[in-house]
Design a protein that fits this description.
92 residues, five-stranded antiparallel sheet
């Protein structure tokens, strides 16, 4: 089985000049999809992960690589909080 990898999920127009610059990155982890993207008319990068209730969360990173790393940190921290909440119910 291949390890999950980020892929360019940008919807390019036919007239868009080459080389094309990715504006949307997707990481499909099976149970969650992590989407790092730009918003039209806005500066910076944003995180959406609908399975974890995140929509257009602003990321501090200035480049795509940093935004992808930051997004994974946010997703992991959120997953840990969810696991802790579930554990407190089942242990209590």
């Amino acid at each position: 089985m291949n390890a999950p990898a980020w892929r360019d999920d940008t919807s390019y127009s036919r007239s868009e000049p080459k080389p094309r610059t990715p504006r949307v990155w997707l990481l499909n982890l099976g149970i969650v999809k992590v989407n790092v993207h730009r918003l039209y008319g806005c500066e910076g990068w944003y995180l959406s992960c609908y399975e974890l209730g995140m929509d257009k969360r602003w990321l501090r990173a200035e480049d795509a690589e940093g935004a992808r790393r930051e997004a994974l940190d946010v997703v992991l921290a959120t997953a840990i909080k969810i696991a802790d909440a579930v554990r407190s119910v089942t242990d209590g």
